[in-house]
Amino acid sequence: MTALLAISFFMHAEPLDMPRAEAYFVKDSAGAMRLEDRYEELDLWTSRAVLGRWSDETGRTLAVAKLFEVAPKFLGETMTRRKYVANAARPDRKKDADVRRDAISRLAPFAISEEPSSPHQALRGFEEVMYWHGTNTSAVVCSFLPEGAPDWYLAVWELAAGDDFAVSLETFEAEFLGRWEEIAAKDIRSEAYTLDAELVAEIQRENRRAARNSRRKGAEPPDLERELLRADAKHSVTNYPGWHVTDAEEFTVLDDLPSDNAFVAALTNELGVMRAKYAAAVPSPVSASNVLAVARIYKDRDEYMSALEANDVEGIDWSAAHWSQARREVVAYLPPDGGRELLKTIRHEAFHQYLSYACSMIAASPWLNEGYAQYFEDEESADWTIAVDIDQVAEMLPGVMGMDYEAFYEGSDAERSLKYRVAWSIAYFLEKGAPKVRFEPFKDLKTKYVAALLRSHDMRLATAEAFGSKDNLDLFAAEWKKFWRNM
Predict the structure, then answer these.
(1) Counted domains in the chain
(2) What is the pLDDT of residues 299-347, one digit of tens each?
(3) Residue where a domain terminates, one of 313, 330, 361
């Protein structure tokens, strides 16, 4: 049992939220198109400062932060991770009292006191300890500088209703501050995450070397933005002993499953294979050197539902996996009956993840997005299980291909189910049927669609431009009908 688990307020680890991204479609100096994610500076600062958050069954929560970077002055400013790290300033632990106070005010759950107070008696192992809760008795807010430490820390312990504040403060000093050396040695890791100028410079040197090599080999150099995203993903669980991290070049998987569970090994093998299949099926001119596919797998449904709530996702309580576009991660939980069905679901959600990056987060038409997600979920099989009138569905095709998501999702469960199967049948036909009949007008349909979507930012216009004319769309429906009638 670790030190943290022995303390009453370290009961349940709460993985930290990834910052919310805003997508920008840009061209670099060489003319290459790429997705550029930007974030509110305060979100980036907070996600790097907070080292961990824990809760217990009564509702008490404890957050611990390290104040190793100056909090942003201009709230609402957005920037890439690269720009943030390049401009991040380190405070002087002795002199920057105003900077430290400002940082504490950003992380505290209420307006902090004008002047801090000190413990009733000196605490061993610290150069200084300050309380900022003032007369507020709902939380203990404490900044502290351990002896010999380069940076200040902040602990915010939010109490449960009915807790005696004086008793809680004594508990905090005895069980947290009194055991800080043990806790910091075993459970609060932050140095590995601190991406200082030296590490950034080394990654940049590697990028330059790779760029020189790529001119000879035709390969894309690694991107600093990808590695900074990977570091953020790891940081979100690094102080939780039950969590594990599995890395590959293009993805990072985070999980709190038992160490002997075989699901993550199966998933990581699957992700590498599937991402190559996605790219082959729906190619994109958007550079992928800065893309990292993050997946977070929870061991139980309650954790998964909490993650959906944190991501402001509603109406999918029935689901086992979800692509959180704002947080840039696939979140899922492992059902009690094992991982076979979950692998299928993640293949579906991971395609949404891939297409979001491939289209620079511009919403693609549901006939493409949902159709191919189901195509890969079903392992590319032709399991046409719904009894339908082929002629009737052929007449539906142009309408379905012109739908936005509101139209695609509306109607009864049976109507939605049919639209999903129609979208799937389009994907299957494009992959299995069109090449067989040498469907020349549409061999580049998906490539044209993605290019048109990147230009227009309009899914309906992209579909119309990819087909070129109503006659071509009618021809597509006729060939679709011929293919499925012969299946």
Answers:
(1) 3
(2) 988 888 888 887 766 666 668 899 999 999 999 999 887 788 899 999 9
(3) 361
Residue 297 φ/ψ, nearest 5 degrees:
-110, 120
Name residue 78's beta-bridge partners: 40
Q: Is residue 202 part of a domain?
A: no
Per DSSP bridges, beta strands 286-287 and 244-247 are unpaired
* Tokens linked to 260: 């002997």
Model confidence over 32-44: pLDDT tens digits?
A: 788 999 999 999 9
Query: Which residues share a beta bridge with 421?
Result: none
The Cβ-side half-sphere exposure at 329, using a 13 Å CA radius, reads 28
Residues 346 and 385 in one domain: no
Q: Token pair for residue 269?
A: 């093998």
Q: 37 lies in a domain?
A: yes
Q: Which residues, 6+ apart, have CB-to-CB distance to 72 below 8 Å?
A: 41, 42, 45
Which residues does 432 contact at the CB level (< 8 Å), separation at least 6?
380, 382
Residue 346's contacts (CB-CB under 8 Å, 6 or more residues apart) are 267, 270, 295, 321, 330, 332
Looking from the CA of 76 toward its CB, the CA atoms found within 13 Å total 0
